[in-house]
Fold these 3 entries.
Entry 1:
Amino acid sequence: MKISHRLTLTMAAVAILSVFLLAGLIYNSTGSIFSRYINRTITLQYQRWAEGLQSYYAEQGNWDNLQTYLQNPAGNVVSPGHRRGRGPGVNAQRFMMGDIIVVDANHMVIGNSSGTRLGEYVSDRELKNAYPLEVGNKYIGSVIFYETGMTRLGELEIDFLTNMSRATLLAALLTLIIAIILAIFISRKISQPISKLALATNQLAQGHWSTRAQIQGDQEIIVLADNFNLMAQKLEEAQARRENITADIIHELKTPLSILRGNLESLQSGALVASEETFLSLQDEIIRLTKLVEDLEVLSRLESGKLALDLQPCEMSGLLDALFPIVNTLELQGKVFKSEIADSLPPLYVDKGRTLQVLINLLSNAMYYTPEGGTIILQANKGKEGFVHLIISDSGKGIEEQDLKHIFDRFYRADRSRSRRLGGTGLGLAIARGFVEAQEGSIWAESTPGKGSTFHLLLPAVT
Ligand code: ADP
């Protein structure tokens, strides 16, 4: 079932139910208010009749002509009080459609509005409901009222209740119409953005990576659309990355493979002499290719989280010792190396092999970009809680700002002149970041072009 249909039906049902509930309650309470009002009016009416009859007796000193007095010529009942201006009033007459019986002190009927029971003696049972009549503390008789039982509600009241029922029905109908219009409006407002989002999702699923949902609506829908757009953007970026990587890999493999192929063809045709030098250069190409494939394999394992890490406590001094060959090389190249390790540094808690690989990569880059006589410094300080902060700075040529944010990307070489042949694959820093992040650490770089670069590493320490 569509959301819009369900919402419309629910709202219509709630509207009908609430109107009828309300109407029922109003009808009920109005009915009982009327009943109370009528009961009070009748009781008052009876009392006035009784008072009127007492006054009648008091004025005359007897009950003479009472029957004439009770029945008007047309046969309608007229209260004595009304005639004297003190009776129950015309309004009350409709309650008096029943029989009125007046008995004297001996309980004989001396007045009867229907005239059927004159001269009869009433039973004690009948007298139980009678109003006793007294003049000057003297019992002069009783009056008994018999209702017809036709109706206790007057026409006005019945009219009122009928009108109210009609008005309730009308209100129910109007509320229903308004509820349906509102439901259609609201459900459209809710379902339209959902349909749009469903369409966008479908397009994304079909590989239209640039799909974005332009949605306006309620807060939750906007959050949903924003999340969808973020997801679409990430998918698009991932897709672009994948495409770039494939293109980069093809590019990186193409050159050495065509060199190998060309050399082998030349060897076959005899254009190239099969000297030791030729074989060494072919072997070089193979070594470089193997290194590239190995680097890519490491990156892919890092990305899939499948790279096993051997995390252990590792002293800074141990790392420095292991860095001896590269330090030695850079010193042989006439560059200065300094290490500044803070006292009482906690041991690192890292995979020693992978961390050395990162440091060697950073030092090799520093060595490559720092001219003879330049300085390379390795510092180790206490980092934020639970971390050691390693800093490798050089006084090399530095990195331009536009390159700085990309140097950790795969195959990114700011220095185009440092071609694959000169040793750079553009994968070193991408792998370094992968290793560091896999160990819950972080890596970033700062640089002032022309002055040098600084690489920062935050690595977990033994706590
Ligand atoms: P490569 O194998 O090309 O060295 P990296 O991923 O290690 O690849 O480095 C990426 C790029 O970052 C390099 O091509 C270089 O342009 C730049 N870079 C890295 N380290 C430094 C440095 N210390 N000084 C200047 N540029 C650097």
Entry 2:
Amino acid sequence: MSSTSLTDRVEALLADAATADGGAPVLPIVAAGDPVLRRPADPFDGQLSDALLARLIEAMRVTMHAAPGVGLAAPQIGLPLRLAVIEDAANVPEEVRAARGRVPQPFRVVINPSYEDASGRHVAFYEGCLSVPGYQAVVARHERVRLRALDERGRAVDEEVAGWPARIVQHETDHLDGTLYLDRAEPRSLSSTQSPAAVERWAQLTPQLAAQELGFSLPESD
Ligand code: ZN
């Protein structure tokens, strides 16, 4: 995509969703079935001015909060750009925090991110996606990853991320490669989240009971 057309598209996206008071708009989220979620996104190489990038990031932050979600990748708002925002207040009971590594992740921006395994270990939990509403499925993911990216000011990031924040990093980076969590999920774990009762059914600390009852395997702990 040329820099002009990306600028035009971002301007149009922000204008179409503009709020009366001029605050950052909540953007429509693209659902599975849209090809933009299936294409590798373009690296960010300065196609947007600093001011427009900042407005886009703020709109993505507001949209993620409104959803609500803990991560949002640019393809999910229809932009094929390697940019994602992440934030997780992790307002969960202590036992959930301990079992899932669900520690708070302050707001952060990742640009051109990539990750690699840093633990040799997989952990499997239910996760969902704002672009696949109404469902959740179990995904085995690296327990810890080495994240390389740029932040919103263009500074290089090279750090290890563990626990639930590592899961979010993998999920969002996968979006930028055209991969949905369903591609990595245990198909037999797929569960509705369309009612509180459906959510409650597999709300245990780990998906062990779901694996037994639905008939799928969990990774060996190694
Ligand atoms: Zn997602």
Entry 3:
Amino acid sequence: MTEGFRFLPEYFPPAAQKALVAEILAILETNPLYRGAMPRTGKPLSVRNTNLGALGWVSDIKGYRYQPIHPDTGQPWGPIPRVLLDLWSDVSAYPHPPQACLVNWYEADSRLGLHIDADETAKDAPVVSLSLGSRALFRLGGLERSSPTSSMRLASGDVVILGGASRRAYHGVDRIYAQSSTLIPGGGRINLTLRRVTAP
Ligand code: MD3
Ligand code: FE
């Protein structure tokens, strides 16, 4: 399952990574990380989240959805940084801007189980991912949970584009190599995913 999958290692230069982390940390002051929960069971997620943009992806006991409001502050999500809008324009090959930037914040022991991203109605738009901070062991599978998978490390500055068939593939994060980078306070990892949610 690699059709439509593009990996751009070290696409984001170190100076740009630093500036972006500073910009994100500043936005988090008023647009804080929160801990979502699994639908139905309410089990807390291992990864903390927030969002930037007009819409944000939220998971709680009631289900998964996109919404325009931060669940804790009741305020609109913060803005998507210009440098990420430019990244989307440069690599997505999609003629409309992203509506959501999901911020995944990983600690040393955070994991993201194998899943598909199916809450977006703009089915033809890719997802563009930027990794910052400590390296992660990322796993990409196929269209079914039982499909074979392959693993790769995602390092700070790496960009991944999930278009075509890969957009519908199972994927997850098996482990974080904590302290493999000093970019994020505490040695953690941030993954940013840019998404088009609704058809234009
Ligand atoms: C493959 N994030 O936010 S990024 C997610 O590292 C998510 O935080 C992971 O899975 C992370 O949903 C992986 C790479 C990625 C992002 C979206 C995908 C791979 C994908 C959507 C479809 C297929
Ligand atoms: Fe995903």
